[in-house]
Amino acid sequence: MISTVEHHAVLDPARWLVEHEGAELIEIPVTKDGLVDLAFLKKLIEERGAEIALISVMHSNNETGVIQPVAEVVKLAGDIPVHTDAVQSFTKVPLSYKELGVTSLALSAHKVGGPLGIGILVLRRAFEIPALLHGGGQEREIRSGTLNAPSIVAFAAAVENSFYDAARVAALRDRFEAGVLGSVPDAYINGVNAPRLPGISNVTFPGTQSDSLLLLMDSEKVSCSTGAACSAGVHRPSHVLLAMGHTDVTAQSSLRFSCGATTTESDIDFALSVLPTVINRGRAAASL
């Protein structure tokens, strides 16, 4: 079982298991605010708990910033293993493997200023999983191969030297969203009523096409995305927004903005200064 809003790093392997290993995959729906439907999960566990091999629910969503009730999922799961993709949350919000109670938790260096291609799998010691790679038996014989020591050290250094101020970033996000709603009154923030990460804002601009908006924003020297940053340039509606109840049209009228540790108030104000013109031009293009 996985949530309908998982990153493709979880979604695609799960679907591969269906196609190649005969697994049954059940996707946990989410509310219009992007939170997993705990009532659905509870009912399914009561009815089919003995058949469920794994539940995977991400800690926070990379497109909307919505933070999932993972600890509640764990309580409902009982003895069923629970995995959480916490890549987006690490160093941004409080995150405790012990307090969550999950079986496994995944992190990645590139989200905290570390190098690409290095990550962490926190796995309960008493739990055994099949080897991913065979060879020298490194990493508890799960992933053999000489350890990438420079990247491991760089990952640790990035975490130790993190200067991410969550309160400051959240204030910038709120400043941006207030400005958006002030200048484009019919725009709306996706997931606004759920707990969210400090720096992600996903906004729907009715009557526009996100691909056109993306190009127009880029021409104004403002970087944003039509969905997951790693799928920028892929012309399809966001599966996350569709799961939250969007139509293909409204899902493709949405942009994802991110604030980071180096974002300033002047950056926010500049983005807001060009937004009305961009939206007007985008709506004019969409009406042709």
Task: Record the SSE blueprint.
Layout: E1 2-3, H1 8-21, E2 27-28, H2 38-48, E3 55-56, H3 70-77, E4 82-85, H4 97-100, E5 104-108, E6 119-123, H5 149-160, H6 166-183, E7 188-189, E8 200-204, H7 210-219, H8 239-243, H9 248-251, E9 254-258, H10 265-286
Parallel strand pairs: 1-2, 3-4, 4-5
Antiparallel strand pairs: 5-6, 7-8, 8-9
Provide keyphrases for this structure.
288 residues; alpha/beta; Aspartate Aminotransferase, domain 2; Aspartate Aminotransferase, domain 1; 4-stranded mixed beta sheet; 10 helices; 9 strands; 38% helix
How would you sum up this structure, described in words?
The structure is a single chain. The chain has 288 residues and is an alpha/beta fold. It has two domains: 159 residues, Type I PLP-dependent aspartate aminotransferase-like (Major domain) (Aspartate Aminotransferase, domain 2), CATH 3.40.640; 121 residues, Aspartate Aminotransferase, domain 1, CATH 3.90.1150. The protein is built from ten helices and nine strands. The protein has a four-stranded mixed beta sheet with strand order 3-4-5-6, covered by helices on one side. The chain has a three-stranded antiparallel beta sheet with strand order 7-8-9. Strands 1-2 form a two-stranded parallel sheet. Helix 2 runs parallel beside helix 3, helix 6 runs parallel beside helix 10 and helix 7 crosses helix 10.
